[in-house]
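Q: I'm writing up a methods section and want to include an example of the input and output format. Could you take the sequence below and give the corresponding predicted structure tokens, formatted cleanly so I can copy it straight into the document?
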Amino acid sequence: MLNTMSHTARRSFLQNLRHNTKYSNTKEQQHKSVTTQKCNNTEMQQYRSTIAQKEGFPMISSQRLKEQLAHLQTLTTPEGKGINRLAFSDADWQGRAYLMSLMREAGLFLRTDAFGNVIGHRAGKNEALPAIMCGSHGDSVPEGGNYDGIVGILAGIEVARRFYQ
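A: Here is the clean output for your methods example:
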């Protein structure tokens, strides 16, 4: 629906959604509205976290993701600026080992294909159903950005971690 709206309509819709969202506490059957005060980003994040916890949805750890990105940023060759974790370089192998350790911590079973791709797998309740797949590349282009490729892997690991917990 949002893709078919103009920029102004989309912005208005999201602002109204943010300020007019109501939720109910089923134990007390109370309705509270966030329209009584304007929400900043921190308040909105706390609100979403509260709703997710009430509904039984675990939240991702943004702090853990920041720490993982910071650690991966240290695994780069010092040449030039930006991230230099070129495919099959020492920095790439170090980054790969770190990512594999995160994948194991998240409860994934690992295998490496013939091309060197690391694939993490967590068995579902019904293996006959289609798999959910997420990922990207762990190496970088020369002088790449800190998020180049790696965010897709870390996001997949974080989701797997939440399923595991």
